[in-house]
């Protein structure tokens, strides 16, 4: 079962909760497939995006190790410098791990078996850094039997021989002297390289102690003639940090080359393009959830990995909370699942908002049928599911089409990025949006410019070819169209339209050249009206679609709660309304009233809200005993005196202090100061 | 060897120390001089040429004394002796093992321990340096410790007093000496004279800014491409005037980039191989200062900057809506005439940072966990520094570690006029 391995550490809630079977037993295989598909795609995407930079890095390492073996004048002169790649990755630190992992994998596959990556937090002192580097470099040749055993041998090794680079030197010489074909590890590595370089990757350069790094570089430069060392610095901010961290005397020992990776916003755009703006995955996010995920990305962390995790969370929640999500799968499976729906689920379908809207539009006889005849309902459901799929198939090409048209308008009325346009469309019908109308007006004026026309034409062509490559059956469709076999399916019709649109645009172009202005304008308006009609027929908001609840995940609050936790708010909620977390009926109260049965800390908290900046501990205790004694039916006087209650009070107060609501003050003895504002 | 020739006088004096290997020599020698003044090079060459037994030790590399002892024993008596040392050996362990070993194989010649970067010994155990200085007595062997340092001996002397080593000073190279040394590693295809005139031109430009031999050695080959280009085109090798005219623009450019290691020599070479028109595309390391940050991180950084450079009592003036009329003169203290930007950033507590953050950011922000985690990620990115100790969870203090230019660039991206909020610019 891949389930736990994929989600390990991703989610807070326990796996047992997920396995709780809902009325319709969830097909875990199905979710698994979903997940795996998405996961594989993400990984592929990541690799694809990093390909350029990784390739150039690999080239760099290869070149460096090969120039070492040359003996011409220039490379001899440079032999004393340690080749260093400064890899600028951007501030989205959580994403870097994946990049470094694939980088070291690639290096090991194609350049050198000796790669060690170190992180700042495990190298506080030079000794530790040295030890980590040695362990990792030499571990790569330890036979991969049991991990523990390998660790033991390396530990022994470090006990007997002190970790210094001379040890490494000896090891390396022994290693390279033994002819590579004998070793299974080296057999496929670098036939052309007699001495594979030793690559050391510093994952987070900024966090390293500069002192440690300087010393390490100084030591390494002493050995550079004997060891083909190479550094890769992972930099999150800007390359000038190297100069901030290393004095000139040290940085002059390095031969630094700069590599800049793709910015994270571009990265996100690709992920959204491939993962969300595609009919490939039946699972969808509604506008609000999208908004939450995107704003977490833009406002908080810039982390694509977290964004993908957010989608995964939404998917999991969707399948967990929505029983009808069994229908959210590939077309065939969905149609099959419809036939297997139980009466309870059919009842759920009848309760769906979108379905109710659909029913209202039907004639009375049909309405009765839908509510009473289960088999009829199943048939209708099949039809509706097909419609929904059709809607998605048309939605994305039209969205892209509209985006290409509007993305170059001045002031971007419909957004610069396609995700903004998508958000608008998800929210409500786009043609009701003012921005859309103004965009259309702008288009009608702008289109006069021939340049833009040609531009767009090329863009459309790109779009065409893109969809060509992504959906192989589109080519098939085009073939159909060219054979002028008209198909009743909407999708085909739409594709034809796109094709025709291109033609019209071409014609417009020609007419422009021949200076016939009025026909051009007519054509332009025609084309725009055509696009407008396309938008109106295909870009309606998903909420208007029947059965959209099956595919769309809507609970943005859950996603926000899980991904963007607010610890302070939760603490205050717990203190104000203990019932919220404890779920004990005795704690149910009206707003603003302290229940006597509440935990001590809640009572103390409520009482302290009524005080000013300084709180007299004695008064506070008095108030507390009154409340508590009322609860237990004791005489307040007695209660007040009781040692037991004052002990409870003191404990609650110190708990409040621990949570940061109050602190002791020197201004007045037996007073504490409030650290929060606002009363009840 | 050019170094030896030039350092003839000094090598002579060292030689006189090294000369009679069968007699006991002076127990310790202290050699000092600036970086790359040829100390270790001369010494190594001499020891090698004279085939004297010596143990080279770099103090940077010896993270623990154990490593130091081990290396000495290893190079004098072989690996077996080194393995006799117990785990985490003390000085007396070392002396014991050494005496044992040297009784088995007594010294026929003086043995030398050469310690590079000896200034680091000052941070080692207090007994190490005095013991090393009179190691000869301790181990009763003909051994001499040579300390190489960039710092004068006065800075070493422990206050408890110690044995005074023999002091030797290596002065810096003069311009003529530098030229002589640099001409030595010429490209084989040029005549010595021609290359030396080339070096002369180089030195003419760079000598005023840099006298470090190591740096200067890096230059001629970085300039190599331009040089070879010229050599191919020119007819007469002896025409130094023409050489100068051809090289001058290249040298000027190199001064800004190669010398500061803004661009590595490899890239510089590539750049010169490319046509002139493209070379503008390659920018040095410090040209990339732009950092892309998440929206709230930007505001956190701005808030941190304001908290660091504004006095806390002026916060009311900047961040309260109805602060009344408070002019700068009202809260200007007498001794506060100097600009805060000259004094550098001041530490501020987390509370103040957040208070400023909430008043600066234009939308309502929930105090979520990710806001706090952004602060700590700013710390790992070294844009903020934590002043208080890591263990202090309660009210941690920070400093803002970014420059004015940087913060101006950041605030421009979020349309925030930071200058209006800075006390110094009122």
From TrEMBL, chain A:
Location(s) in or outside the cell: Nucleus
Signal peptide: none
Top-level lineage group: Eukaryota
Molecular-function annotations in GO: DNA replication origin binding
Coiled coil feature spans: none
Keywords, in A-Z order: DNA replication, DNA-binding, Nucleus, Phosphoprotein
Domain Origin recognition complex subunit 3 insertion: 340-555
Subunit structure: Component of ORC, a complex composed of at least 6 subunits: ORC1, ORC2, ORC3, ORC4, ORC5 and ORC6. ORC is regulated in a cell-cycle dependent manner. It is sequentially assembled at the exit from anaphase of mitosis and disassembled as cells enter S phase.
Residue ranges annotated for the Origin recognition complex subunit 3 winged helix C-terminal domain, each copy included: 568-633, 646-677
Name recorded for this polypeptide: Origin recognition complex subunit 3
A Pfam family hit: ORC3_ins
GO BP annotations listed: DNA replication initiation
Function: Component of the origin recognition complex (ORC) that binds origins of replication. DNA-binding is ATP-dependent. The specific DNA sequences that define origins of replication have not been identified yet. ORC is required to assemble the pre-replication complex necessary to initiate DNA replication. Binds histone H3 and H4 trimethylation marks H3K9me3, H3K27me3 and H4K20me3.
InterPro entries assigned: ORC3 (IPR020795), ORC3_ins (IPR045663), ORC3_N (IPR045667), ORC_WH_C (IPR040855)
Family: Belongs to the ORC3 family.
An example Gene Ontology CC term for this record: nuclear pre-replicative complex
UniProt keyword Iron-sulfur present: no
Record bears the keyword Phosphoprotein: yes
Domain Origin recognition complex subunit 3 N-terminal: 23-327
From TrEMBL, chain B:
Biological process annotations from GO: DNA replication initiation
Top-level taxon of origin: Eukaryota
Compartments where found: Nucleus
UniProt cross-references to SUPFAM superfamilies, sorted A to Z: P-loop containing nucleoside triphosphate hydrolases
Pfam family, one: ORC5_C
Family to which this protein belongs: Belongs to the ORC5 family.
Protein name, entry field: Origin recognition complex subunit 5
């Amino acid at each position: 079962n891949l389930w736990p391995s994929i989600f390990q550490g991703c989610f807070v809630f326990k796996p047992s909760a997920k396995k709780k079977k809902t009325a319709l037993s969830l097909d875990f295989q199905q979710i698994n497939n979903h997940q795996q598909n998405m996961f594989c795609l993400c990984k592929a995407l990541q690799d694809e995006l990093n390909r350029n930079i990784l390739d150039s890095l690999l080239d760099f390492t290869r070149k460096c190790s090969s120039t070492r073996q040359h003996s011409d004048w220039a490379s001899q002169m440079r032999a004393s410098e340690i080749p260093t790649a400064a890899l600028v990755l951007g501030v989205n630190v959580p994403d870097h791990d994946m990049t470094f992992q694939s980088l070291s994998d690639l290096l090991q596959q194609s350049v050198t078996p000796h790669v060690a990556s170190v992180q700042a937090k495990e190298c506080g002192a030079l000794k530790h850094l040295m030890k980590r580097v040695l362990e990792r470099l030499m571990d790569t040749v330890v036979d991969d039997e049991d991990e523990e055993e390998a660790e033991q041998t390396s530990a022994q090794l470090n006990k007997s021989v002190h970790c210094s680079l001379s040890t490494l030197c000896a090891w390396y010489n022994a290693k390279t002297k033994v002819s590579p074909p004998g070793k299974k590890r080296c057999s496929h590595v670098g036939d052309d390289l007699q001495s594979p370089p030793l690559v050391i990757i510093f994952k987070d350069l900024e966090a390293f102690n500069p002192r440690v790094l300087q010393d390490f570089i100084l030591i390494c430069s002493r050995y550079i003639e004997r060891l083909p060392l190479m550094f890769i610095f992972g930099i999150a901010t800007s390359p000038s940090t190297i100069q901030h961290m290393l004095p000139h005397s040290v940085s002059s020992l390095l031969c630094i080359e700069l590599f800049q990776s793709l910015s994270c916003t571009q990265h996100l755009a690709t992920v959204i393009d491939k993962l969300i703006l595609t009919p490939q995955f039946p699972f969808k996010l509604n506008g609000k959830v999208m908004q939450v995920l995107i704003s977490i990305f833009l406002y908080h962390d810039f982390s694509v990995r977290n964004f993908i995790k957010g989608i995964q969370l939404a998917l999991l929640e969707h399948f967990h909370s929505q029983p009808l999500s069994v229908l959210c799968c590939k077309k065939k499976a969905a149609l099959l699942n419809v036939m297997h729906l139980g009466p309870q689920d059919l009842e759920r379908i009848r309760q769906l908002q979108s379905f109710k809207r659909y029913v209202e539009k039907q004639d009375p006889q049909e309405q009765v049928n839908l509510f009473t005849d289960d088999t009829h309902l199943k048939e209708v459901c099949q039809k509706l599911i097909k419609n929904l799929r059709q809607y998605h198939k048309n939605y994305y090409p039209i969205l892209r089409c509209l985006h290409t048209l509007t993305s170059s308008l001045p002031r971007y009325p419909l957004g610069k990025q396609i995700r903004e346009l998508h958000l608008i469309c998800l929210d409500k019908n786009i043609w009701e949006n003012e921005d859309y109308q103004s965009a259309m007006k702008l288009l009608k004026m702008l289109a006069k410019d021939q340049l833009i026309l040609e531009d767009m034409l090329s863009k459309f062509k790109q779009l065409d070819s893109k969809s060509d490559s992504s959906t192989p059956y589109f080519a098939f469709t085009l073939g159909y169209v060219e054979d002028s076999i008209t198909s009743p399916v909407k999708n085909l019709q739409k594709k034809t339209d796109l094709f025709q649109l291109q033609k019209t645009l071409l014609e417009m172009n020609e007419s422009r050249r021949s200076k016939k202005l009025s026909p051009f304008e007519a054509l332009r308006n025609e084309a725009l009206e055509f696009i407008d009609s396309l938008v109106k027929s295909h870009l309606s908001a998903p909420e208007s679609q029947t059965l959209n609840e099956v595919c769309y995940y809507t609970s943005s609050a859950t996603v926000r709660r899980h991904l963007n936790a607010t610890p302070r708010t939760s603490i205050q909620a717990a203190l104000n309304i203990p019932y919220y977390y404890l779920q004990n009926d005795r704690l149910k109260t009206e707003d603003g009233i302290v229940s006597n049965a509440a935990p001590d800390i809640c009572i103390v908290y409520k009482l302290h809200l009524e005080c000013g900046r300084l709180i007299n501990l004695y008064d506070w205790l008095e108030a507390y005993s009154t409340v508590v004694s009322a609860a237990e039916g004791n005489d307040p006087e007695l209660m007040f005196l009781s040692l037991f209650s004052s002990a409870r009070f003191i404990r609650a107060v110190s708990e409040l202090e621990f949570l940061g609501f109050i602190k002791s003050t020197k201004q007045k003895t037996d007073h504490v100061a409030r650290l929060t504002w606002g009363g009840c | 060897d050019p170094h030896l020739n030039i350092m003839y006088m000094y090598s002579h004096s060292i030689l006189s120390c090294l000369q009679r290997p069968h007699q006991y020599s002076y127990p310790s020698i202290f050699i000092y001089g600036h970086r790359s003044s040829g100390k270790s090079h001369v010494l190594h060459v001499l020891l090698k040429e004279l085939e004297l037994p010596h143990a080279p030790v770099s103090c940077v590399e010896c993270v623990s004394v154990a490593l130091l002892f081990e290396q000495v024993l290893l190079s004098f008596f072989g690996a077996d002796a080194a393995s006799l040392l117990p785990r985490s050996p003390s000085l007396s362990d070392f002396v014991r093992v050494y005496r044992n070993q040297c009784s088995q194989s007594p010294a026929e010649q003086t043995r030398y321990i050469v310690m590079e970067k000896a200034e680091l010994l000052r941070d080692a155990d207090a007994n190490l340096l005095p013991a090393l200085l009179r190691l000869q007595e301790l181990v009763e062997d003909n051994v001499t410790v040579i300390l190489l340092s960039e710092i004068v001996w006065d800075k070493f002397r422990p206050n408890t007093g110690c044995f005074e080593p023999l002091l030797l000073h290596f002065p810096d190279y003069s311009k003529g000496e530098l030229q002589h040394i640099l001409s030595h590693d010429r490209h084989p295809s040029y005549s010595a004279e021609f290359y030396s005139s080339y070096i002369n031109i180089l030195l003419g430009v760079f000598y005023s800014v840099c006298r470090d031999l190591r740096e200067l050695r890096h230059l001629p080959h970085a300039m190599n491409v331009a040089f070879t280009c010229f050599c191919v085109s020119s007819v007469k090798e002896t025409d130094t005037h023409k050489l100068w005219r051809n090289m001058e623009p290249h040298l000027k450019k190199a001064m800004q980039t190669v010398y500061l290691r803004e661009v590595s020599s490899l890239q510089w070479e590539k750049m010169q191989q490319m046509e002139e028109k493209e070379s503008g595309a390659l920018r040095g390391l410090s040209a990339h200062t732009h950092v892309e940050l998440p929206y709230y991180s930007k505001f956190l950084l701005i808030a941190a900057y304001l908290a660091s450079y504004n006095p806390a009592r002026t916060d009311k003036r900047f961040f309260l809506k109805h602060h009344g009329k408070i002019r700068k003169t009202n809260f200007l203290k007498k001794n506060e005439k100097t600009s805060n930007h000259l004094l550098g950033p001041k530490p501020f507590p987390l509370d103040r940072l957040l208070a400023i953050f909430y008043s600066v950011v234009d939308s309502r922000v929930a105090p979520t966990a990710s806001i706090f985690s952004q602060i700590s990620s700013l710390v790992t990115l070294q844009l903020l520094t934590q002043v208080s100790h890591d263990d202090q969870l309660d009210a941690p203090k920070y400093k803002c570690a970014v420059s004015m230019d940087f913060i101006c660039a950041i605030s421009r991206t979020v349309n925030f006029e930071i200058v209006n909020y800075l006390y110094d610019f009122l």
